[in-house]
Q: What sequence folds into this?
């Protein structure tokens, strides 16, 4: 019997192999709708409805589905929480031949998820206790999951919504019970800015979601501070984080080259922070904050917590500069220059209600400016001349105008006392202003917006009242000196500091106007 040619044997074996492979693929084809539907529900951790679906074979096996709606398994009667325009799944022929349960790529375009207000009845219905197990990940390994041009809307009780635009989200190693790696690029709605992050998440602890580990690094750039109130500037920041979801340890640095409050002067502000973030509630605890502006370093600690979120901060300045502290708040030249120490507590009320930042800010504290000078040269010369007249050794009988003072002769004054900020107004009940020869104990207000001053109190001098003026005014005041002189002391004069920028004045306030 004649032996068949080799090529026919090879061809026959190939045909048998392809027949067996085809039969295997047909029997175990993973992209039938009945197989696809539970796979997609596994990915979303929810019920899904697919309007259109068709298989693909070349160059990769898989399927494409469009017009998908997503409903929570725990709340099938509530409106859908999301939709997907297009979902495509690609496998590998090698995985099919070897019967490996693995998907190479899942891509989504136009994913739109709408979440009800946190803590609302709808939120509790959508995500009841124990529902986290639905987000444990698929039981079929997905090598890469990519999400493009998608939206996440978080509703608020007020009817507003925060829309997070997710440009790209890529997850690798997606499998139930396994950690996954992610890369994210998105837009934050308020304050607006660009977020990028990369790191690892999981595996999800379904019985205790807060114990799920997360780690990575992030950047938050082009942040428009104006979006959160009457503050201005563009912030850039970056940092790293790690830990369980309920207590993520994070360290970050930031730079705002043009920070200002209301219409204050743009000021370069740099900061570092160590904080603990509760990823379940959004609360942030900040044991260590350091903010630098020119030569001044501000140390702070506190928290942003609650619903709605409020901020509480304890603030301290040990060896700062008064001009650095005041510059971001004032539109015009800062009035004083010199070292400053400060201790205060600040509270910032909820944002998003149309209330300006300065009206949401409350501060209670004390400060000390031990050796200041006035920034305006003419005013400083007037103060220096007054100090010379107020000192007992300067009580010569002349009433001529004092000559201009040289810089080396400029008098240093001090300013200290309690200060509170409420509704954009600084108030004090015991402001002590001192220069050689005199001191003033004042109470009143200073408006940050408009910079109007209204302070009243007593001026104590080493000399008598006539030395508060020169020339003819001093002569007229001479007969009144006994009425303002205390035993063994100089004059004690009621005064008022009043006015607005360019029109400030200090007057004798004999009636102590309030």
A:
């Amino acid at each position: 019997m004649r032996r068949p040619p080799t090529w026919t044997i090879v061809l026959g074996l190939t045909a048998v192999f392809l027949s067996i492979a085809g039969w295997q693929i047909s029997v175990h084809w993973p992209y039938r709708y009945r197989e696809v539907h539970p796979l997609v529900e596994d990915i979303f951790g929810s019920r899904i409805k697919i309007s259109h679906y068709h298989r693909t074979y070349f160059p990769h096996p898989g399927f494409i589905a469009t017009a998908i709606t997503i409903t929570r398994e725990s709340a099938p009667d509530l409106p859908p929480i999301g939709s997907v325009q297009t979902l495509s799944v690609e496998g590998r022929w090698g995985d099919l031949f070897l019967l490996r349960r693995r998907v190479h790529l899942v891509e989504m375009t136009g994913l739109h998820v709408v979440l009800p207000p946190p803590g609302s009845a709808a939120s509790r219905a959508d995500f009841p206790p124990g529902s986290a197990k639905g987000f444990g990940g698929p039981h079929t390994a997905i090598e890469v999951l990519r999400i493009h041009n998608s939206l996440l809307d978080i509703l608020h009780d007020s009817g507003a919504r925060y829309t997070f635009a997710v440009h790209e989200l890529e997850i690798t190693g997606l499998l139930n019970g396994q950690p996954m790696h992610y890369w994210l690029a998105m837009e934050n709605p308020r304050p607006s800015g660009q977020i990028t992050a990369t790191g690892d998440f999981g595996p999800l602890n379904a019985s205790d979601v807060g114990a799920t580990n997360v780690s990575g690094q992030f950047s938050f750039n082009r942040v428009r501070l104006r979006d959160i109130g009457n503050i201005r500037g563009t912030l850039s920041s970056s940092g790293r984080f790690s830990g369980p979801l309920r207590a993520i340890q994070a360290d970050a640095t930031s730079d705002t080259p043009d920070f200002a409050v209301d219409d204050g002067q743009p000021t370069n502000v740099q900061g570092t922070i160590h904080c603990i973030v509760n990823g379940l509630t959004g609360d942030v605890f900040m044991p260590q904050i350091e903010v630098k502006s020119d030569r001044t370093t501000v140390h702070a600690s506190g928290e942003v917590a609650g619903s709605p979120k409020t901020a509480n901060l304890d603030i301290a300045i040990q060896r700062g500069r008064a001009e650095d502290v005041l510059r971001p708040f004032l539109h015009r030249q800062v009035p004083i220059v010199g070292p400053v120490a400060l201790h205060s507590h600040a509270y910032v009320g909820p944002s998003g209600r149309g209330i300006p930042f300065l009206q949401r800010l409350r501060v209670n504290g004390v400060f000390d400016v031990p050796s200041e000078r006035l920034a305006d040269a003419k005013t400083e010369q007037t103060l220096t001349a007054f100090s010379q007249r107020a000192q007992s050794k300067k009580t010569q009988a002349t009433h001529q105008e004092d000559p201009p003072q040289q810089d080396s002769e400029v008098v240093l004054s001090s300013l200290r006392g309690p200060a509170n900020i409420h509704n954009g107004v600084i108030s004090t009940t015991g402001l002590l202003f001192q220069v050689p020869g005199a001191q003033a104990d004042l109470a009143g207000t200073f408006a940050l917006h408009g910079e109007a001053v209204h302070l009243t109190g007593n001026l104590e001098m080493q000399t008598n009242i006539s030395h508060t003026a020169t020339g003819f005014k001093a002569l007229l005041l001479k007969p009144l000196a006994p009425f303002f002189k205390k035993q063994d002391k100089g004059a004690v004069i009621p005064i008022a500091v009043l006015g607005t920028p360019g029109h400030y004045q200090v007057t004798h306030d004999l009636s102590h106007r309030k």
About this structure: Residues 6-28 form the longest helix (23 residues). The two ends are 128 Å apart (CA to CA). The first strand starts at residue 47 and ends at 56. Confidence is low (pLDDT under 50) at residues 394-408, 471-480.
